[in-house]
Amino acid sequence: MALIVQKYGGTSVGNPERIRNCARRILETQRAGNQVVAVVSAMSGVTDGLIKLAKEVSPEREPIEREMDVLLATGEQTTIALTAMAINALGGKAVSLTGAQAGISTDRVHTKARIVNITPDAVKKMLDEGNIVMLAGFQGETASGEITTLGRGGSDLTAIAMAAAIKADLCQIYTDVDGVYTCDPRVVKTAKKIEEISYEEMLEMASSGSKVMQSRSVEFANKFGVRFEVRNSMNNNPGTIVKEETPGMESVVVRGVSLERNQAKVTIDDVADRPGISAAIFGAISQANITIDMIVQNVSHDGITDISFTLGAAELPKAEAALKAVLPSLGDKTTLRTQSGIAKVSVVGIGMRSHSGVAAKMFKALADAKINIQMISTSEIKTAVIVEESEVENAARVVHTAFGLDA
Amino acid sequence: MALIVQKYGGTSVGNPERIRNCARRILETQRAGNQVVAVVSAMSGVTDGLIKLAKEVSPEREPIEREMDVLLATGEQTTIALTAMAINALGGKAVSLTGAQAGISTDRVHTKARIVNITPDAVKKMLDEGNIVMLAGFQGETASGEITTLGRGGSDLTAIAMAAAIKADLCQIYTDVDGVYTCDPRVVKTAKKIEEISYEEMLEMASSGSKVMQSRSVEFANKFGVRFEVRNSMNNNPGTIVKEETPGMESVVVRGVSLERNQAKVTIDDVADRPGISAAIFGAISQANITIDMIVQNVSHDGITDISFTLGAAELPKAEAALKAVLPSLGDKTTLRTQSGIAKVSVVGIGMRSHSGVAAKMFKALADAKINIQMISTSEIKTAVIVEESEVENAARVVHTAFGLDA
User: Fold this and answer.
1) N or C: which end of chain B has fewer CB within 10 A?
2) Which of these three, B154, B176, B198, is where a domain ends?
3) Which residue from B58, B122, B145 is facing A101, i.e. has the nearest CB?
4) What CATH number is attached to the domain comprising B12?
5) pLDDT of A360-371, one tens digit each?
6) Residue A215 — pLDDT band, cuts 50, 70, 90?
């Protein structure tokens, strides 16, 4: 008998029929001789509907965050009740637990709380009584009993954290794709499903645009050593196992290629090359709550340099406004240039650590396809380049082929 | 400074605009120098939508009641969050509390739990910190932390029970009418709002079809001496005060006239007049979970009698089925007759105790209008008659006039 945590996203529980399908799958898992905790998200569309209501009752200001959490937590509470009902209707035995009831304690940072502790006594007791436990994802409770939510990707985090707390044998993240692919199959027809991927690779893929899961859940799994499987709730195909790095994994140099569209570039020309300049620029950006990606600064000539960085195109107006305020302090001739309509292509793989020539091979493949590289950024297990948005799909295809990833 | 509990029903919070109207009213009450706890129901239509979903995921059986409570509790949780947001957006300071967070402890009878205890520490603390407390109606928590709901009229009960627990100075039940009327104004144009009514009268009015509130909330208020006001959330008119009986109240003989439509009558003819017969009849009815109203048994002739009772017309088929099973045991010639298309008119008033001739005056008014009385039932403060459904409105009007209730 194994102890299994499953997680079903909003699409998988998007209507009564789909809820019943999930209920059947959960029940089959239990009947195969396992104990099951199933984490569910809000039905797709429900959270957006609640946010719309919140904005309508609070037009003067952003809805206050404490109450946003009370509101949004109803989405998952609805799904746990409906799924537990469905399982019982199908002849099974299920009980639902909210985050608070399941002992998920968080800090007090409403709308993006962090889990500080899990006391899984209620979950264990209900499992031991033969129940399937339907657990509300995305939510928890502060020490003083206030409802909190965990922010984006919160339901995945609930599943992985609960799997760690109850020492589950298996954690399955059900989604609407078969697993993690070597590239987006809509772009690269020859992309194939990855059987096993390390936490680090999964993190780099996520940060490079392959949004199967939010990075924080993968980071949590990495920290607590929770091996999990990303699989499809609509079929029985095996998925992708995400786990600690094993020696054999390094034999594959590049695990996957990911692409991220709608990027923009900001270049600050003729900046004085003296201490405090970068701090002034990125302090202004950070204060405006803008998340940036690549930063490139080249060597200076005559005490003058250029600094470029990339960010999501939607953030560009905010970034321009923030920088204009500090521009005069950066240098006498400092100017600001921006460009949208660019995209990022990354190759990711822990094998890069022990294999040289990955960047060279990537650049050659792009050059052969006459694709110009605008910026380059590398990490230990990733090489990323910025290209024209119109060329990103072709870039992904040629790189995918160059590293032998085609099925 | 007064401590006020207000309650707003589903229609009053039925959309974002109405929620903001309630928020304004609540905030005005606080700004007038009071502490305010506001109890809200689910937005109108929400509970029905959730019940529909429950039936869709559980077509094989009634959705299990534990999960029904988890599901339905989301309705009020949504409203408390939205109303608290609206109050904050309007410049006030509000926090929401679910039933569990507010310390409302109930028994374990899911979907119709009873409040066993209220620990209002969190409510008091939040009030003392200058907050308006938005409290979810209709819900509580068992000693072991499971979510329960209180059944029909549950939000009124939450308001009255919390008012008792925190020793509120005033409890206002906001609804979509101006208060309790001497009769349904849609039927009797001259009906007027009652300024004060005793708990007993309110109970008899409720049980006679004037469904401003469920009886159990009035009973609870009576038991704990909670004086409350029924008033309209759409205007500022004074409402009806429901309170303990005072000597002056008896000077009005009849407080109001109520009518109840869609009644049916069951007559069992030629029943042997011996011990156990009534028990057999009403035992069968009770086992079928049918609620009955009037019972009439006349004196017997030659050891044979007739028994009649009334009930809601919708329950008639169930009652017939239940009785047919026991009919042979009631007497050799026993037969069953049923009649629907009848209605009940009642006059209610604690003044009846000390005034004679109420029944006679009622019967004369009906006789003058050529309305035939089919059955009569009386209590200490009520006289009720059954008439043809087609005559019930006219009956209510002539009785209303006869007792001097016309405005």
Assistant:
1) N
2) B176
3) B145
4) 3.40.1160.10
5) 999 999 999 999
6) confident
